[in-house]
Every structure is written in C-alpha cells, then in structure tokens.
Design a protein that fits this description.
The chain has helices at about 5-10, 20-30, 40, 45-50, 55-60, 75-85, 135-140, 160-170, 280-290, 405-425, 435-445, 465-475, 480-500, and strands at about 65-70, 95-100, 180, 185-190, 210-220, 225-230, 230-235, 240-245, 260, 275-280, 295-300, 310, 315, 320-325, 330, 340, 345-350, 355, 380, 385, 395, 515-520, 525-530. With about 550 residues, it is an alpha/beta fold. Helix 10 packs parallel to helix 12 (about 465-475).
C-alpha cells in the first residue's frame, strides 16, 4: 500500500475506530515523503490542533511571503518579465503575484501591427505590411520556448508570425491570466517614508532604498481610474513609440510631405515619386528597397557614406546637411569635396530611429529619471536595468542593437533574483547605493561601449551584448555551462546573419532572408539547411 492510498484510508476511517493520535503521528512523521515540508497545509482541520507546536510553527514559517509585482506592457519584454516572476519552485524564498498592465487589447507590443487606414499619418506603430525580421527565428526565440530549426519554414519570418509566436508563448505559460488589457498607466509614484530619511556621509539616503511603488492607470472600457501599490515595478513599454527626427536646417522650406518611418506601411503610395530616405540602418534600407520597386528614384542618405553609389533604382548618398529656400536638398561633400544638390524630391522619410519615452514619468513626479529627446539615454540606471537609486523600479528592454527576446529573458531573470533575495531579507546581488550611483553615472557619461563614444550610443550593445548577458546571468546566479552554450550559439548565428545581411545592397534582391538555419547548442554552432548566398556555410 502506498502513502497516498494509506492517507485516503486514514481520512475515511472514523476516529472511533482509528485513534486520532495514530493518524496525527502518521501525518507528522518525518519519514512520510508525501507530506515532507507540507504536513500542516495538507492535514485536515480536525487534526491540526494535534500537531506538535514546533512542527506547526515550522510549517507556518516555511510559507514564503508574497510580494506584488507590476509589469507595464505586454510586449515581448513584459511577457518575459511576467514569466520570470510567475515561475514556481520548491526553493522559492518569495512568491510573487503579478499584474501586467497593457494599453492595447492583445499581447505583442510593436509586433501587433496597426490596422491600415486611409492616412499614413495616423499610423503610430513601426510594423508595416511586408516587414520580415532581419534576424532568424532560431536566434530570436526565447530560450525557454524554441522556434524553428527544422528547415520546414523560413527562418526570417513576417511580423504576423512573430505576433503569433508571442501569443503562443503567453498561452503556453498562462500569462494572460495576469494581464489587464485596455489599461493605460498614467502615473508612477515612489512611496518614500520621510520618517526613515537620513543621509549618510556621502549624502546618500539608504533607508528609502527599496520603496514601494504606486501606479495609477485608466481603464479604457469605463474610463475609470485605478490605483494600486506594488512592491516593485518592471517597466517594459518598449522604445519604438516616439519617433526621433533630428534637426535639419531648412526643413520648413521643403515643399512636399515629411514623414517618419513609423508612418510607412506600403510602397504603392510612393509609386512614380522621387523619395529621400534619411537613415540607412535596418528600417531605412528595407523601406528604400521596397519603395525602389515602384518609385521613379529613391535616395538613401547614410552618414557613413562617402560618395554616391548606384544600386538599381536606389542611390546611396552621404549625410543630408540642409534644404535651401528653393526646396533643393544638400548632401555633405563626397571624396572630391563637392557638395551634392538634388532637386525634385517629392517626399522625405526620416528613418532615424526613436527616442525613449515614459509617459507616466515626468519631472513633476518623484522618480529621478532623465530621458531627454534626441539623447536616447536613460539615467540613472545600474547595468542598464535597475534604477540606480530605487532598484524596486527596473527597465527591461532598453539596450538596442541586440537580439531582443533572449536578452529580455536574461534581464527578467536577473531582476527576479534581485527582488527575491531583497524581499526575503537575504544578502542581495546588487552593490551599495553609492556604488550603483557611481556606476550609473559612469555608464551615462561613457558614450557607449565603443570609441569614440557619443551620448546616443549609451544603450548600444551590438557585439558587447554577449558579455552583458553573461554578466547579468552571473549576477543573477543562474549562469552555467548550458547557458554559456546558448549564448555562444546565439553569437555564432548573429554573426552569420550579420555578414549575410551586410553583403546585400539597398536596391538589390533580399537574398539573405532565404537562408534557413538549425542551431546546435551542444556544439555552440549552427547548420545552414538552405541558402541562396554563394558564401553560405555551416559552422
């Protein structure tokens, strides 16, 4: 007879037939594996008073405390954060209840494309009709939820497939149960206790270091205001919502439409026109390629270009410098020191990226956070993740030029570890307040990881993302050989994809997106299952 069967028999036996002390002794016996650590929770009410006082107290003390976590945004970063905090283990020191606040009616963040409308100016999300990823899905996927690798379908997928993947991820881990859709967060307030305020010799206030956070939001269905206090908040609202348009002398003199890439959806509205795209990174080159198939001509202005280059219907030009009174566009001098001037441009599209934006945080609130338009820098942050002064506020997903989903996953798990240890009253993983503030100031003034630095590259990682992921994993105490294999394989795939992408020309065929991959984490490598690139080879 096994223990489960015996337990059922004991409960069904009348106390007049089986002595109560016998049942209680069985339930509390240390050799009873089914009930080890859980005896008090599972014993029936009429038996609990018969448990030895020390056993009852131990069972009660074993229950971890519960803390309230808010996640702002249900895009990929918000889903990763929710998953990290909802994961359960017998070793948990703290249990978390998670509330995800999402403005839209569905998950997906930027991958949830706006429905087409008659006016491109009403479009406020960066996804466009024909967008395909510039990273393979085998690389993009969360580590915990692999995607692709069998060669049956393309590795570079449409935005619709990414959206469905995120839906599947949310369904797999039942994340929607904690998401409140149709909620716009309007105000974040740090709940400081003035009675606990005292400065140390350096002017730092350690007593309010982990304050609780109040959030106020509006519910769209009834336009009602809601407020709740949380033990910590993860800000995951993305950084592709506020278009950045750099100053361009004479722009007001341009006679035609001036747009940002966020407004672009389909190439057909640019048919038979002459278009200037300013900015030649991912969105600029892809949009120029699409428009080039229907336009009279497309000029692609790249600040790293030194002379005019022709690629089919797309012409690559140096930096755009100004627009004169007649509406002609001027470009910086090429290698022959001659400024180029082009007349007859019909439309300008700024493919110049986005600024960080947190509409629920402003200078009138008490969270010291700086994110000036044009700087693309958020400060003060420790490890580009925790608010340096109040680490109960974290920002998941700020670094750019990265493989986003795996990085979100690692950031979220590091944040969970930090909060779990802090709320359990154990030795934390973060350094002292003064050390965090010093590190945050160093990061904010460094200009990024490469020389010569510039403020706009503060959150740039690129090839430095792998060491960043390792550092966070070690900080979060979950770095091991398996994770190292995963990170190393990601780097190999990322480098291969980058080489193939950079071999393409703006007006040419999008050949690199035909490559299909399979990853092999055990050997830190990948295989190419199909490719139209002449230089393609497995590693």
């Amino acid at each position: 007879m096994n223990y489960t069967t015996l337990f059922a028999l004991l409960l069904s036996t009348s106390p007049s037939i089986l002595p109560l002390s016998t049942t209680a002794a069985f339930l509390t016996h240390p050799k009873t594996p089914f009930f080890a650590g859980l005896r008090h929770s599972f014993s029936p009410p009429h038996l609990r008073s018969h448990m030895p006082p020390t056993a009852a107290a131990a069972a009660e003390n074993h229950r971890p405390p519960t803390k309230q976590i808010a996640v702002i945004g249900a895009g990929a970063a918000g889903l990763a954060a929710a998953r990290a905090f909802l994961r359960r283990s017998d070793r948990d020191r703290v249990r978390f209840e998670v509330t995800v606040l999402e403005r839209r009616p569905s998950v997906g963040g930027i991958w949830d494309r706006d429905e087409p409308s008659s006016s491109s100016s009403s479009k406020r999300r960066p996804m466009y009709e024909n967008l395909r990823t510039n990273l393979p899905k085998e690389l993009m996927a969360f580590r915990e939820f692999p995607w692709g690798g069998d060669g049956a379908e393309e590795s570079y997928v449409t935005h619709r497939k990414v959206r469905r993947y995120l839906e599947s991820y949310a369904d797999e881990f039942r994340l929607k149960d904690c998401i409140r859709f149709g909620c716009t967060v309007e105000r974040l307030t740090v709940l400081l206790n003035p009675q606990n305020s005292s400065d140390d010799d350096n002017g730092n206030n350690d007593n309010n270091e982990w304050p609780r956070i109040s959030l106020q939001w509006k519910v769209h269905d009834d336009n009602a205001q809601r407020q709740q206090t949380f033990d910590a908040v993860c800000i995951c609202n993305g950084h592709y919502a506020l278009p950045s348009i750099p100053p361009l002398p004479g722009l007001s003199s341009f006679p035609g439409p001036v747009r940002h890439a966020i407004e672009y959806d389909r190439p057909d509205e640019y048919a038979h026109k002459t278009v200037l795209c300013i900015g030649a990174r991912a969105s600029g080159t892809d949009i120029a390629r699409e428009i080039g198939s229907v336009a009279n001509a497309v000029y692609l202005s790249d600040s790293t270009c030194r002379q005019r280059q022709h690629f089919g219907n797309v012409v690559l030009l140096p930096r755009t410098t100004r627009i004169d009174d007649g509406g002609a566009v001027h470009f910086s001098a090429s290698t022959n020191d001659e400024e180029e001037v082009i007349q007859g441009i019909d439309v300008i599209i700024f493919c110049s990226g986005y600024d960080y934006d947190f509409p629920f945080i402003n200078e009138n609130l008490n969270l010291d956070l700086q994110f000036a338009p044009g700087e693309r820098r958020v400060r003060p942050l420790y490890e580009q993740l925790w608010h340096a002064k109040y680490p109960s506020v974290s920002f998941i997903g700020l670094p750019h030029s990265v493989v986003p989903f795996p990085l979100f996953e690692i950031q979220a798990n590091a944040v969970r570890t930090a909060y779990e240890l802090q709320f359990a009253g154990q030795s934390g993983i973060l350094p002292s307040l003064s050390e965090r503030l010093e590190a945050a100031e160093c990061d904010a003034s460094s200009g990024g990881p490469e020389e010569p630095g510039r403020v706009q590259d503060t959150h740039y990682l690129g090839p430095h993302q792998w060491d960043y992921c390792r550092r966070l994993a070690k900080l979060g105490r979950f770095y091991d050989a398996s994770l190292e294999n995963y990170i190393a394989t990601n780097k190999e795939l990322y480098d291969c994809s980058g080489r193939e992408r950079k071999a393409m020309v703006p007006g040419g065929k999008d050949t690199y997106r035909q490559t299909r991959f399979a990853r092999d984490d055990d050997s830190r490598s990948y295989r190419i299952l199909y490719s139209e690139m002449s230089s393609a080879q497995s590693v």
